[in-house]
Amino acid sequence: MIKKVILRLLLVIMLLAFSTVVVVQWLWIKHAFEEQRDRFSSKVYDVLNRVVNRIEEVNYVRYVNRMNYQIQSNSQVTYITSQRQGTSRQGGITYLSVQNMFPGQKRVEEEMTQELVIQTMNSSYEVLKGRMQELTIRLIQEKETGNIPVEQRLRQVDLENLLSVYFRENKIEIPFSYKILTKEDVLNKVKERDVRNFYYVALFPNDYIPKNYYLGVSFDSVQKIISGNMGWLLLASGFCVFGLLFVFIITIVVIMRQQKLSVIKNDFINNMTHEFKTPIATISLATAAMAKEKVLEDKESLLRFNDIIRSENDRMNVYVERILQQAKLDCGELPLNKTEIDINKLIEAAAETFLLQVQNAGGILTVEFNAQDFKWEADEVHMMNVICNLLDNAVKYSVEVPVIEVYTKKEGKHFVIGVRDHGIGISKELQKKVFQRFYRVSSGNLHNVKGFGLGLNYVKNIVELHGGNVRLTSRKNKGTLIELIF
Asked: Whole-angstrom Cα distance, residue 46 to residue 52?
């Protein structure tokens, strides 16, 4: 038997171990959620940057087309030299003049020329020409579009469609809303802490002068997509936690049950020892007395001692038979020899065996048969044992003078056998335990009634094997009624 201190220590260790597992699982899941959220944020920012780059490309192409249209309509394409308009080559480089093309752009030409001269010696003509044209166009574009409203620059860009397409490509299929924000709008959102599920990037990042406009996207909730990617993780974690919880609970229940069974076993062994000790001592005394010469010469004394030995031997056989029957019941190997018997006559025969015992104690035993023609297919031996067990308990647990009532009656289609006493009764919390194997109702800390605690357990098993059930009604210090319903 495990000591209480060790049992409590074991329970504390198991509880701490389980708590540690739960905390570790929680931290692991929390970290995984944060990692998934970071991945989601990375995808969203990738989409926003792609959209912004697409806006840049559309604006650039649109401006180039407009510029080409102006060039063709005005026929102002010329080549320049270092002094005036015309064509000149220096170091194998041909320069394109934009002075006549766009009047007032002398500063742009000078900046462009300085940058190209630095790269002249080590660059090819075609590369420098393309770079020169792109830089020229962007500088002119920025100056001309500097005062154009942002709505006009985004007029030919379907932002919602672009965002939807790019989000689908990144497997982000949840509702979203977008908005063009100023720097003040973004700062207000940050101050108000209204940035949950909100992402933004700067518009027109290639402008040399920042415009302080931002493309912002908001999601109502991203939990669905984050949780969807972690379904297997949550399932595995839940199985781990609840599996361990189930194992711990089962372990604790088994330990407690084993502890209880250990106490019951020790109690049963003590009871069995005392029950066998009395008849063994009696038989020992009787055999010792029979060996005396005086008793050997007295035939009546020999017969009396012989009856004592036979009686005590029968008593021990009854105890052994009860234990064996209980073992067979536990294994489901108890055979039933069913025949049609008259239950009323069976009860009457059982009552007669206890009548003398009750009368010697100054008590009363009454029998009343309200169910006529109570004939039924049953095992006569086991049914007799059931009735005798109930009567025996009624006598043992009566207070001083036993008053016992036995009856049969009919309730609808059911036959009922009842045995009532007016003894010590059974408290409500113990009524479910009295049918357990080896359990006996005690008075205080002392079992003041002999027995193995097998009687009512045997009664319940035999009745259930006959297709019936047992009903118990009892009140502390008021008595007990046990009814068998078939």
From this structure: 10
Give the residues across from 480 on adjacent strands: 421, 474
Mean pLDDT of 330-336: 68
The DSSP result for 52-86, as a single string, is HHHHHHHHHHHHHHHHHHHHHHHT---BB-SSSBS
Pairwise pLDDT comparison (450 vs 299), residue with the higher score:
299
Q: Which of 53-67, 87-101, 222-236, 351-365 has the highest mean pLDDT?
A: 351-365
**Rounded CA separation 263/266 (Å):** 5
Which pLDDT tens digit goes with each residue over 169-185? 988 888 889 989 888 88
**Token pair recorded at residue 52:** 């912004």
Q: Could you give the 3-state DSSP secondary structure of residue 108?
A: helix
d(CA 472, CA 479): 11
Query: Whole-prediction pTM value?
Result: 0.45
Helical spans, DSSP H, in 192-298? 223-228, 231-290, 293-296
Element at 159 (helix H, strand E): helix 159-169
Residues 6+ apart with CB under 8 A from 111: 139
- The pLDDT of residue 48 is 92
Helix (H, G, I), strand (E, B) or coil at 115: helix
Tell me the torsion sign for CA atoms 380, 385, 390, 392: positive
Q: Residues 229, 233, 238, 243: is their CA dihedral positive or negative? A: positive
For 242, the token pair is 């609840």
Residue 340 is encoded by which pair of tokens? 């049609």
Max intra-chain CA distance, the chain: 166
- In sequence order, what DSSP letters do the residues of 428-466 get, joined into one string? GGGTTTTTSTT----BTTB--S-S-S-HHHHHHHHHHHT
CB-count burial class (<10 Å; 0-12, 13-18, 19+) for 434? buried
pLDDT score at 99? 39
First to last CA, the chain: 41
Are 209 and 19 in contact by the 8 Å Cβ rule? The answer is no
**SS3 call for 481:** strand
Query: Rounded to an integer, what distance in angstroms lies between the CA atom of residue 350 and that of residue 386?
Result: 10
Give DSSP secondary structure letters for 359-385: HHTT-EEEEEE-STT-EEEEEHHHHHH
Enclosing H/E stretch for 429: none
Closest C-alpha among 396, 407, 341 to residue 370? 407
Token pair of 189 as six digits? 């959102």
| Nearest alpha-carbon partner for 52 in 180, 139, 175 | 180
Sign of CA dihedral 454, 459, 461, 465: positive
Residue 485: per-residue pLDDT = 92
**What pLDDT score was predicted for residue 442?**
56
Q: What angle do CA 71, 72, 77 make, to 5 degrees?
A: 50
User: 220-272 pLDDT, tens per residue?
Assistant: 888 777 776 677 777 888 888 888 888 888 888 888 888 777 777 776 677 67
